[in-house]
Amino acid sequence: MHSRRHFIKALVLSASIAAIGAPLGAHAADTIKVGILHSLSGTMAISETALKNTALLAIEEINANGGVLGKQLEPVVVDPASDWPLFSEKARQLISQDKVAVVFGCWTSVSRKSVNPVFKELNGLLFYPVQYEGEELEKNVFYTGAAPNQQAIPAVEYLLSEEGGAAKRFVLLGTDYVYPRTTNKILRAFLHAKGVKNEDIYEEYTPFGHSDYQTIIANIKKFAAAGKKTAVVSTINGDSNVPFYKELGNAGLKATDVPVVAFSVGEEELRGVDTKPLIGHLAAWNYFESLKNPTNDAFIAKYKDWAKKNGVPNADSVVTNDPMEATYVGINLWKQAVEKAGTTDTDKVIAALSGQTFKAPSGFTLTLDKTNHHLHKPVFIGEVRADGQFDVVWKTKAPIRAQPWSPYIAGNESKQGL
Q1: How far apart are CA 144 and CA 337, in angstroms?
Q2: Eight-state DSSP code of residue 385
């Protein structure tokens, strides 16, 4: 009886230890946590909310096909609320507390630069899906949006060409932070190389959330009245695009008079604007919803279906755009690399990402460069249509390799890969 009591106590004790240890360990290993770091409120929500949605769609699709390494992906969504220091705080939370294997997020370069030290310190992994100014190459970041030679430079080359209107004067108009200022520094040097003088370049910046563009549009009209063909290069970001384009329409500045080419305005931003006065104005991207191919048809259908099922506001009118495509491609490239590496270990996944390819909705197979953490991407220039979509008026024949370090910035000659 005595020995039996000891035996039962031993059984109970071992069961208690198992109950404490096993389920916790099993639960932790059940899923792979994935961080989503996008502004769902504040000035950038107009652009970033759709990227959060796209990430959730991609995760849902991967899970329906068996997950990654036999495990389901578990999204952890945070809202840094267009507050740049909060991006850093939320990134630290995702890596240190939530123990995510990877983060998909950021839009503005100031948000990316605020989280870069966190990813470096904690050896996390960030996929950044938006075009940017270059002049950066981080071991812990993969850049699935465009570098300047994959968007800004081709767009200005187009404006200079006979086909693009042979512009002789340029307005460089942006939101006041690192992406517009650095991009315009590169573009100014590029324009100088093409023989455009400083007096034929007018540069101006507005703060985030700026809404009164009356004076600026009046200044642009005055600058364009000098008799030389003038074009506007816009790096305005976030919800300021709505009042800018409204004022452009109010002032009667048509694309035939002064064309605007935008690098941060796509289908999503034009949903809030009467596009009829904007017909013919331009955007340069690496994807448009209007591209006709089976991969894009499937991508659009999947997103529209997901939006309806998940109660996205105005689900009937949702659109796809370039940073959404870059988000979708990035998540799939990460999945492929994890499966190749057989682990979510950051360093092993980084090594496995080198040279990965994915058939993108743009219709091109995109390749992750073996040395510089950027995608080789096609370039498209589109004209705004009355329905807020874009007609492609110019495109590259094949994907272009990114130059993170612009050759138009002095001292970059020796900088290449990591």
Answers
A1: 15
A2: P
The CA dihedral of 27, 93, 237, 316, to the nearest 10 degrees, is 30
Q: Please name the helix (run of DSSP H) or strand (run of DSSP E) that holds residue 369, with its range, or none.
A: none
Which is nearest to 55 in space by CA: 18, 92, 105? 105
C-alpha span between 109 and 128 (Å, rounded): 10
pLDDT in tens, 190-240: 999 999 999 999 999 999 999 999 999 999 999 999 889 999 999 999 999
Sign of CA dihedral 290, 293, 299, 304: positive
- Backbone CA torsion sign across 357, 131, 109, 81: negative
CA–CA separation, 346 and 322 (whole Å): 26
Ordered domains of the chain (ranges, CATH)? 11-18+22-146+293-312+321-377 (3.40.50.2300), 149-291+381-395 (3.40.50.2300)
pTM: 0.91
Residue 76 three-state SS:
strand
Cα–Cα distance, 199 to 216 (Å, whole number): 17
* First and final C-alpha spacing in the chain: 71
Helices 294-309/322-341 angle, 10° precision: 100
Sign of CA pseudo-dihedral 360, 363, 365, 369 = negative
